Every structure is written in structure tokens, then in C-alpha cells.
Amino acid sequence: MPCPACSFQNQEGITFCGQCGIKLDSTVNMRAVHISAAIDFVDRQREMGELVSALDDAMSGQGRVVMLAGYPGIGKTRTAQEFAAIAETRNAEVFWGHCYEDEGALPYWPWLQIIRSHIDQSDVESLKASMGSGAEAIDEIVPELISKLTDLGSPPRFASSSARFRLFDSITTYLKNASVDKPMVLILEDLHCAAASSLALLEHAAADVSASNLMIIGTYRDIEVSTEHPLSRTLGSLVRHEDFQRLQLGGLSHAVRKMEASTGIISAVAGDLGDEGHTGEGGPATNATLRNPSGLAADASGNIFIADRQSNAIRTVLLR
């Protein structure tokens, strides 16, 4: 199914375009604009474009690591969610791991969540093929594995440092192998709360992700990461890799306005809220103009959502 906005050829039966994110049953034709996947998700085109580009690399066998940084509530999780929806339309598997600032949390907690989710939806033969001889080491931290791979033996005994390296290598190899048949996106949420064990595994995986179909995304609150913070060391390690990228999310300072296609009435829905008004001088109209519109999205009913960068002045939007 070709996308009406960007002409990307999508597979039949999907809801959103895998290239630009527009809802494919939309009857509105908008030209020369970048459209986000959700009607209330605007002005993140730069970040989404970078994420989609990184996904393209991963799907072509060049693994990527991307960090989303920003203030609390700035939209890191929402950005990751919107990107995850696009990744899934392109037949990538998405797995989430959440970090918690809790002394009782298990070591490698976000990674355990990811591995458990993948185990739950994998058959025995594919798990054996992906994990290989590393299954015994992984079973040490994921005891649920033995319920699927019932013939697991005991892992060989090594010194503690060697045992940890073997564990990290086994997990990284397993995830890389699993992504061969279907690209995988791993999203690690709130890395500013991550335990040292989880960060160490991230560093190991990031160093070995380049020749794979893996994409690792991390989110964190940059204001909570001082030079003494454990994540600071990890970021210093990640930045040395060519496949690493950090995206800083800024605030949505532009006014977001909604136009009802049937009436031509404009109303502010977020940002710099102004008075509701019409698009024409004396009443409803079909044409309106906005100064330098940047973020724009549409739903199937033809409702347009616009981020007006410079002012609340009505300038140009053309519906066809």
C-alpha cells in the first residue's frame, strides 16, 4: 500500500506508514510536510527522523545505540513509544526494560525484562539456535529459561570476573543471533536509575552491536547525571563508538493548534494558548496560513494539528 504523503510502499494490513508515520486510511493529502504517527504528537520530526535513520541502519546489519536525554516529563518515553510503533510496522520486534531506583531490584533488571519477554514469545528451537552454548550462563540470571530448555546443564565454573564476561558475551551473542531473522529494538527506560550491573552490560553490548540487526535505545534524565553518576561513565564509554548517537529533547515551545476540516475553526490545544477563532475574516473558510509550520499531523477525519513556530497568526494550510 503506497503512502499518500511520502509514497513509501507499505505492506498490506498495517495502520501507519513505516516511513513517515501517517495513518494510512487518512483521506487528507498534505504535500511537502513531515507527518508524525499520532495526531497529538508534534514537533518531534528531527528526533523521529534520526531514530528512523538509525533503524534503517540496524535493519541493514549496522547495529545502532541511541540515547534520548532530557528533563523529566519532556517526552522521552512518548518519543520512544511513537518510534516503537513505527518500528513494529516495519517488522522489527520491540522489547522494553525499565530501570527502578530500588535497592531491592534484581541485578540486570531491565535486561531480565527484555530477555524474559523474548523467551516467552520464542519457540524452543529458535532459543537453542540463538543462545547456543551460552544458554547455561544466561540461565544463571534467568531461571525461567529452564522451563523451555529443559536439557540445560550447569555452567562451567570461572573466576567472578571471567564469569561476568562470559555472561555478558552470552547475552550479547544471543540477542545478536535472535535479531538475524527479525530486527530487534531494545528500549531501556530511565537509565539514570540503572544499577551498575545493568550499565556494565549495556557497555558490553554497545561495543559489539555494530555488525548486527540490533538497535538499543536508552532514555535518561540528563539533569540527574552528574560527573560522579554511574551513567556518566557509561556515556563516556558509549560515545567512543561510531554507531552511538545522543539525542537531546528540547521543550515543545511552539503553539499547537487544531483545525476542524468541516468548519474551519482553529483552536489552541497546547503550548501558547490563544483565543479560539476562525480561519477566515468573518467566518469558516477552507484556507488558512500559519507562519513557518513545523510539526503537523492528521487523523482519518481530516482534523489537522499544527505546531506554529513563530506566532499565533493564522497563515497557510491548504486541504485538497
Detailed description of the structure:
It is a single chain. The protein has 320 residues and is an alpha/beta fold. The protein folds into 2 domains: 203 residues, 3-Layer(aba) Sandwich (Rossmann fold); 66 residues, no CATH class. Helices cover 30% and strands 20% of the residues. The chain contains 8 helices and 12 strands. The strands form 3 sheets. It has a 5-stranded parallel sheet with strand order 2-3-4-1-5. Helix 1 crosses helix 2 and helix 4 packs across helix 6.
Short summary of the structure?
This protein is α/β, with parallel strands linked by helices.
Write the layout of secondary structure elements.
Elements: H1 45-59, E1 64-70, H2 76-89, E2 93-98, H3 109-120, H4 124-131, H5 135-139, H6 160-181, E3 184-189, H7 196-207, E4 214-221, H8 230-238, E5 244-248, E6 255-259, E7 265-270, E8 277-278, E9 287-290, E10 293-298, E11 304-308, E12 316-318
Parallel strand pairs: 1-4, 1-5, 2-3, 3-4
Antiparallel strand pairs: 6-7, 6-11, 7-8, 9-12, 10-11
Keywords:
320 residues, alpha/beta, Rossmann fold, 2 domains, 5-stranded parallel sheet, 5-stranded antiparallel sheet, 8 helices, 12 strands, 30% helix, 20% strand, disordered C terminus
What would the CATH topology of the largest domain be?
Answer: Rossmann fold
In the CATH scheme, the class of the largest domain would be: Alpha Beta
| Overall 3D form | globular
Mean pLDDT: 76
CATH architecture of the largest domain: 3-Layer(aba) Sandwich
Alpha plus pi helix count: 8
Order of helices and strands: HEHEHHHHEHEHEEEEEEEE
Helix content: 25-40%
Q: Please, what is the CATH homologous superfamily of the largest domain?
A: P-loop containing nucleotide triphosphate hydrolases
Q: Please describe the biggest sheet, giving its number of strands, its sense, and whether it closes into a barrel.
A: 5 strands, parallel
- How many domain units? 2
Runs with pLDDT <50, length 5+? 26-40, 269-294, 308-320
Radius of gyration: 23 Å
Sheet/helix structural class? alpha/beta
* Order of neighbouring strands in the sheet with most strands: 2-3-4-1-5
Portion in strands: 15-25%
Number of DSSP-assigned strands: 12
N- to C-terminal separation?
A: 20 Å
